[in-house]
Amino acid sequence: MSDRLSTYWIYQRPVNDMLQLQTNLNKTQEQISTGKRILTPADDPVGASRVLQLNQEIALMDQYERNITLLDARLEQEEGVLGAVEDSVARIRELAVKAGNAGVLTGSDRQAIAAEIHERVEEMYDLMNSKDGSGEYLFAGFSGNTQPFVENPGGGYGYQGDEGVRFLQVSQTITLASSDSGKDVFMDIPSDKTSFTSYANPQNTGNPPGIVSAGITLDQEKLDAFYPEDAVISFENPLDVDPPEQNFTVRRKSDGRVLEGLQNVTYNPGSPIQVGGVSVNITGNPNAGDQFIIESSNKQGVLTTFEKFLFALENYPPGTGFDEVYDANISQTLNNLDKTIENVSQVRARIGARMNTSESVMNQHADNKLAAKDIKSGIEDLDFAEAVSRLQMESFILQAAQQSFAQTSRLSLFDFI
């Protein structure tokens, strides 16, 4: 039995073969133009899966490197600010040493020292409210858009940031702090001896507002005995006394008990108010109901140290009968400044350790990324020599098929009759 070939089969089969050859040729050309061996997952399912995994690893390391860049920029800026803080504190310490030479210090000398301290307080206040490159406050914790340190209308400085510390992930297992809380850096500094902070209740309504001074310690033993109690200076109704006049009462904060007979005391603006071994001054025009708080503490912020030193210079200079109080303030100022420098130095050391770690991790990422790219290249990159040879072969086969089809398609039985 003889086989019969249909005209359709004679034409369709060679055309299909030539289309497949053309597809192969086009694919080889695309591989050469892209330099990639794997154009679709179907080309090498296992290899494509591995390439996808490597791409994810490389992208993750790129993100870690961006985090490290951001971390280093923020830490470098913070370290620079803290360096300036140390310089400022060191200068105040020089002035405190100079102020301690009471025997050779003149009134003009003390005025000059006080004037520079005023400037240093402003400088320190500005440094403590420094911002990073994105406009957020460096020492505000999580509240980056909130100014951390504010000057209270009633005297002193307050901290309105939080104690949060931001972290950035720099590898799969390592996260590094990119900030430090201003409270930890500038406020929670162990004091040389029991100290205190004075401030006004923000809800006071006096006009002009009453302002409480930083104050000074007159009797350290009394303050030690008073700690950890706090005192509240409350202005009473003028009608409570006869004749009616501004007056205040000092109570213990914990239970409201009147302290040391300080009840309905006549208010004289600027006159010392002594309680628990300390002395503060209140100026302005407080209203009835206004309050001023004296908090005893075993910690002392850097601005409080500056202000207490300044208060002693301006209100208790040598030769006014308070030489021992003045000398004690100078001694405590020097010790508290040393503790401030120590605390800031410890923070700078932590920053240096983080930056060293980030540098090591960055180098590790660079090595790992290079290795991943080498492996990826070995899987997906094209062998150009082999591909060019294959292209020439496929082109030759396609041409031969086309020429063969051209010849056979012209054959007809009538040619042989």
What does this structure look like?
The chain is of the alpha+beta class and 417 residues long. The chain contains eight helices and 13 strands. The strands form four sheets. It has a five-stranded antiparallel beta sheet. Strands 6, 7, 11 and 12 form a four-stranded antiparallel beta sheet that branches. Strands 1-2 form a two-stranded antiparallel ribbon. The radius of gyration is 41 Å and the shape is elongated. The chain starts with 6 loop residues before the first helix and ends in a 9-residue tail after the last helix.
Helix residue percentage: 40-55%
Q: Strand sequence of the main sheet, in spatial order?
A: 5-13-8-9-10
Strand/helix succession:
HHHEEEEHEEEHEEEEEEHHH
Distance between the termini: 23 Å
Question: How much is the radius of gyration in Å?
Answer: 41 Å
